[in-house]
Fold:
Amino acid sequence: MSNVEAVKAYLKNVGLDDHYLEFAGSSATVELAAQQLGCEPDRIAKTIACIKKEGGAYIIVAKGTARIDNGKFKRTFGEKPHFVPADLLPELVGHPMGGVCPFALKDGCDVYLDESLKAFDVVYPAAGAHNNAVRVTIEELERITTDRWVDVTK
Structure:
């Protein structure tokens, strides 16, 4: 099963398969995704993957223009952030660069929602590829991923 098929199966399992969107063009960056959706970049739910010392990854979902605050990250997780290199994303997280999302992840990935998302009613995380997304409310995103909220962005 491809990672996109895994995301679609995940969405179907949680009753949100009709929220999946696919585009003719690329949505691999926040700016490109915002263009495809006709929304502001902050509504793109950027998924940031950081390596955990003990293995696996921290998966942090934040508003599109957010950046990790190193001090907040260290206070929250007890270690400095180290981004997963692009070539290791499929192996460690389960999705390629431009398609990293908080769904259908590899074992050892822990999902956290950043407080920056709370400014929005609807956001758009990627869905496993460079040309797709999922339209979800914050409540839906919380329900289908995690109830762990953090404040680790600037």
Remarks:
- The chain is about 25% helix and 25% strand.
- The first strand starts at residue 20 and ends at 22.
- The chain has a mean pLDDT of 96.
- Residues 17 and 119 are 25 Å apart (CA to CA).
